[in-house]
Amino acid sequence: MLQAERNAGGAAGPEAAPLPLAVTRLTLTDFRNYVAERVEVRPRPVVLTGPNGAGKTNVLEALSYLTPGRGLRGARLPELARIGGGGGWSVAARIETPAGSAAVGTGIEGRAPDGGDDETAERRVVRIDGAPARGPAALAELVRVVWLTPQMDRLFSDGRSDRRRFLDRLVLGYDPEHGRRVAAYERVMRDRLKLLRDGPADDAWLAALEARMAEQSVAIAAARREAVMRLRGALAAGIGPFPGADLRARGYAEEALDELAAVEVETRLQDLLRRNRPGDRESGRTQEGAHRADLEVTHLVKGLPAALCSTGEQKALLVAVVLADARLQAAHRGAPPLLLMDEVAAHLDQARRAALFEEIVALGSQAWLTGTDRALFESLTGAAQFLSVAQGKVTGSDG
Ligand SMILES: Nc1ncnc2c1ncn2[C@@H]1O[C@H](COP(=O)(O)OP(=O)(O)OP(=O)(O)O)[C@@H](O)[C@H]1O
Ligand SMILES: [Mg+2]
Q: What is the pLDDT of residues 325-345, one digit of tens each?
């Protein structure tokens, strides 16, 4: 266990006000390369440094499960269990929020000695203040987490699914029900495909599922549009050296809502789903719906789509989106999200790095930053706590 810089404030001068949303204790049990590790931090930004393979990204990944969804690496839940452990894992945290303090825990049970069933291993259990929650979606009301990882350097060049997930994580900040709605939509979509494939060919049943999918697609699209609209305003002028950007949610319902009333879009999408039945049955894929949407990002100064920008420019665009979102959230919910920034410093030039750190401090966000090189974070000395990570152990350092 580690008590990071307890009472260090006295020596370092007057203590800054504690952040409105922050993790103050994180406990990892059989999570990735951690056996049982407890990290105590103050409500301030945190810098984790250490050699390759130490466990820095794993700490960020653990924090990413304090929110609904598939986590920062999109891993399958059993993969997160420590190799050589019992097959289960858990992440527990004490979180300070504007509404008070909460104890949150999440994880999966180990496999029973008789082998257990796969279903159990795929379900993430969540407890809030000791009581079982309805599911990970309940976390969205309590805490928001947004991340930037090196894998996201490919966000604008790869397929749309990661961009859509990025957008949906942003939407959660404005509409905590969004995750539940997307999950419900995906369930109905699977039911319809199964019915198309395996029968019975029941027109009324299919029509009911399609009506539900159309209705959910429009609700999901409306939430995406709303979040994008808010972000557009905050992003247009750029943030310091991070460029102005324009955002657009693309997709059948997302675009149809420009011109038509929601009920009309719903009817049209329902008709489309009906017409698509033979093709969907043939391909085993649903051709149209909320799961096909995309997020389009344009670099405003250059007037170019993000995909045509350089790697560094793309990173700067992503940072701009995340910072704009954090600013809006601070105004909207009284606290900016936790920001998980994996190796973000290494990708930015000195001026952008300094601007990012300044903005994090000004925002009052508990950012968790990682890097192999402590020197890159020098300008955060005094404002952040520095922790060292080595071989699945987290210890305080002289920051
Ligand atoms: N399920 C698991 N059980 C045990 N160890 C694991 C598991 N999954 C990953 N690891 C190991 O955890 C270690 C730390 O990984 P992590 O990605 O956190 O490193 P890092 O400190 O971010 O390193 P880098 O600087 O290279 O990004 C790695 O050696 C990895 O192989
Ligand atoms: Mg890493």
A: 999 999 888 899 999 999 998
Q: Nearest CA to 46 among 361, 391, 375?
A: 361
Pick the CATH number of 160-307 from 1.20.1050.90, 3.40.50.2300, 1.10.10.10, 3.40.190.10: 1.20.1050.90
Q: Residue 105 region, left (φ>0) first, then alpha (ψ -120 to 50), else beta?
A: beta
Q: Coil, strand, or helix at residue 387? A: strand
**Percent of the residues in the chain that have a pLDDT greater than 90, as a whole number:** 82
Specify the range with the lowest mean pLDDT, choosing from 69-78, 100-109, 119-128. 119-128
CA distances from 294 to 154, 218, 239, 263, 288 (A): 15, 15, 24, 22, 12
Distance CA 159, CA 136 (A): 26
Question: What is the H or E stretch that residue 264 is in?
Answer: helix 262-275
pLDDT of residue 123: 85
Q: Please give the DSSP secondary-structure letter assigned to residue 347.
A: G
Ligand 1 touching residue 73 (CB < 6 A): no
pLDDT tens-digit map of 34-61: 999 999 999 999 999 999 999 999 999 9
Q: Which ligand is nearest to the CA of 387?
A: 1
333 lines ligand 1 (CB under 6 A): no
CA-to-CA distance for 79 and 74, rounded, in angstroms?
10
The one-letter amino acid at 256: A
CA of 80 relative to ligand 1 center, distance in Å: 10
- pLDDT at 385 (0 to 100): 96
180 CB neighbour count, 10 Å cutoff: 18
**Per-residue model confidence as pLDDT tens digits over 271-300:** 999 999 999 999 999 999 999 999 999 999
For ligand 1, atom 18, name the residue with the nearest CA. Answer: 55
Amino acid at the residue 147: W
